[in-house]
Amino acid sequence: MTPLHLPTLTRRTLLAGMAGIAAASILPAKRGLAGALPVRDFALRAAPGRFRLLPAPNGQTPVWSFNATVPGPEIRVRQGERLRISVENGLDEETTVHWHGVRTPNAMDGVPHLTQPPIAPGETFLYEFDAVDAGTFWYHPHQRSFEQVGRGLYGPLIVEEAEPLRVDREVTWVIDDWRLGDDAAITNDFGGRHDMMHGGRVGNTVTINGRVPDSFAVRKGERIRLRLINAANARIFALDFTDHEPVVVALDGQPVTPHRPADGRVVLGPAMRVDLVLDLAGPVGSRAAVVDRFYEGLEYRLIELAYGDQPLRDGPPDWPLDLPANPLAEPDVALATRHTVTFTGGMMGQMVMEDMARGMAGGGSGGGMMGGMRSMMGMMHGKGIWFVNGVAAEGPMLDPMLTLERGRSHVLAMTNATAWPHPIHLHGHSFRVISRDGEPTTHREWQDTVLMAPRETVEIALVADNPGDWMFHCHILEHQMSGMMGVIRVA
């Protein structure tokens, strides 16, 4: 499958960008001397251009990108610093920037019509927020994201720990897929109904950091921290590192108990991130493939680890793997308020709901959920394809589907009553994944995007400590645009 400047700020847009900055210190952050946060200034310009995704003799691909590069420039700061990012819109349509996984104040979250007016063509918006958590994050538009992200508008945002993990080298891989024609151009079939009803816009060309990859040079004995970001609209990756044993040390930017991934495969749904520690233990001069095995029968070589002739050391170093925790409030599950969320719709959705309802009735339990699912089957109407609690999101403004009392612990019991996997993302918060299909999770991992398998029930827990109206949606972007989206209010 592998083939498969600081812009000028206007007074109006400066004031618009400043509107939410008064709230920029709601969340705790480490401060420097005299209580002042170090400020780091960055500038992004979204604009059309051309970029070489495919190797020669293929031509360049027309893309939309930040600062004329795919992915956009890596924004890298230290935990506790303040980011001030001016975003200029050089497109012919409105845009915004969402800082995915970063716990920003609500006014800085980048959701058009919900947290800010969209940035008009030729205008600039100023985002400002504190880097509260260390970790691997990324940025992308939330205006018509199914096309703007799909044309290349995204980039990594890395927040370094005060004491980073000791490794020989740190590398970021932003992985994406593209639907390209024979002329190397992106096919102009965004928002197609087939993609919306099925698994989303899965492409035919996979890139790492904007290039179709060939090999990645390594040395025997080297230890690498590999930050993986899935920027694809819909493709899910399950990476097999072939004879290597990567250790997961962070998920969605948040530290986790170091562990080897289940079945040896590193799974990333769209928008998810995984930090790995990879010890290179292969023979000098050898090559080892990294293979994507998520889609059965469609496995392919993503890249090869190419060992040089000179080893760095004979064996792996004996350095600690634990990352320091971020300042997240621990939910009290025993005292938490419980909420039920059910995702429905899509191709074969009716059949799945009916099967699940029959199964729960036959099992003698789950009558409340069964009745709710039958009620939702009757509610689904209109243009929507995907539904959250029986409602398909339509239009730019949404009434809250849930209101979470601020400062309290909450558990969301989420059921994927569809035939397709869904990476579910909550803005403004991280949450603990506490159970899957009633079984406690091994690591109670902190995440902001959780991948749900078809027919799976997942419980997440959080403290609602970041006030505002927050988007809650599937990050298969075609699913989001066709209804699988809601708003959760924290008040």
What's the structural blueprint in terms of helices and strands?
Blueprint: H1 11-18, E1 39-51, E2 61-66, E3 75-78, E4 82-89, E5 98-100, E6 124-130, E7 135-140, H2 145-148, E8 155-160, E9 169-178, H3 193-197, E10 205-208, E11 215-218, E12 223-230, E13 237-240, E14 247-251, E15 254-259, E16 265-268, E17 273-279, E18 287-292, E19 300-307, E20 337-345, H4 349-362, H5 367-379, E21 386-388, E22 402-404, E23 409-416, E24 422-426, E25 431-436, E26 439-440, E27 446-447, E28 449-452, E29 457-463, E30 468-474, H6 477-481, E31 485-490
Parallel strand pairs: 1-4, 3-8, 9-12, 11-19, 20-23, 22-31
Antiparallel strand pairs: 1-2, 4-6, 5-7, 7-8, 9-10, 12-17, 13-16, 13-18, 14-15, 14-17, 18-19, 20-21, 23-29, 24-28, 24-30, 25-26, 25-27, 25-29, 30-31
Helix pairs in contact: 4-5
Give a structural overview:
The structure is a single chain. This protein is mainly β and 491 residues long. The chain has three domains: 150 residues, Cupredoxins -  blue copper proteins (Immunoglobulin-like, Sandwich), CATH 2.60.40; 139 residues, Cupredoxins -  blue copper proteins (Immunoglobulin-like, Sandwich); 158 residues, Cupredoxins -  blue copper proteins (Immunoglobulin-like, Sandwich). Helices cover 10% and strands 37% of the residues. It has six helices and 31 strands. Strands 20, 21, 23, 25, 26, 27 and 29 form a seven-stranded mixed β-sheet that branches. Strands 10-9-12-17-14-15 form a six-stranded mixed β-sheet, with no helix packed on it. Strands 11-19-18-13-16 form a five-stranded mixed β-sheet, with no helix packed on it. Strand 18 and strand 19 form a beta hairpin. Helix 4 packs antiparallel against helix 5. The longest helix has 14 residues. It is globular. The termini are far apart. It comes from Nitratireductor arenosus. This is Multicopper oxidase domain-containing protein.
